[in-house]
Amino acid sequence: MRAGKFEKKFGKYAIKNLSMVLIICYAFGYLFQWMYPNLLPFLYLNPYEIIFHGQVWRLFTWLIIPPSSFDFFTLLMLYFYYSLGTTLERTWGTYRYNVYIFSGMLFTILGAFLLFGYSVILYKEEGLAMWGAYMGMFSPAAMFSTYYVNMSIYLAFASTYPNMQLLLFFFIPVKIKVLAIIYGALLAYQFVTGSVAVKFVIGASLMNFIIFFITGRGKVHMTPRQAKRQYEFRREVKKTTKSTRHKCAICGRTEETNPELEFRFCSKCEGNYEYCQDHIFTHTHVKGK
Predict the structure, then answer these.
(1) Rounded mean pLDDT of 12-31?
(2) Are 114 and 59 in the same domain?
(3) Do 132 and 11 reside in the same domain of the chain?
């Protein structure tokens, strides 16, 4: 089944303004962190606890764990990623953006379980003990978060708008692709020099970017103005192409504007003419020339 067919079938379930939903999840995470800081590790994506203790909520609660401590800089970064994500959603469409974000989350979950299986096979009892110590802030489970999923949003934006300029430190103009190259080099360095856990975390969390963009499927080069025009065009087309089943040829009322009306076709008119209940018997019959 091609991607277009998937979108037609599942597109209606796509979450609109998904970036705002993620921000709201972080808000709950910060609130939980402030009220119950000692319980935060119970939200980690820990396969050991999921498998052996049935704590299935961890498959979802890790999404609300904030990527960093709360401060003014964090607010700026969250707004920054919200702006990037919203622009991508307008450019790609809600369905495609949903697929990109949720695939990053699913790959992260898969990476956590693969790392757990690797640890158990390689270290056996020591591997189980490592994952069992979920209360330790530096346990492998604490490393799996939405941090790199957020970074994948930035990489996606940089690939879509490579020549867009940002003001670094609010006054230094720099193209976004330059920052993306620097960040990609740092990621590559962390991946090569990091531990096995770091490799799993980075590889799994950025797999959505690799699939969408290294294969060339997600490369859409537009300026922000072009993206805005495309978004407005699609919205207008959606409005104008929205058809109704019944429309009166005299008054123009439809089943949507006036659902209480009944509509009938006239058998005496030459052509496909339909009228509402107020004009079905009072209209002048249309005759061919």
Answers:
(1) 89
(2) yes
(3) yes
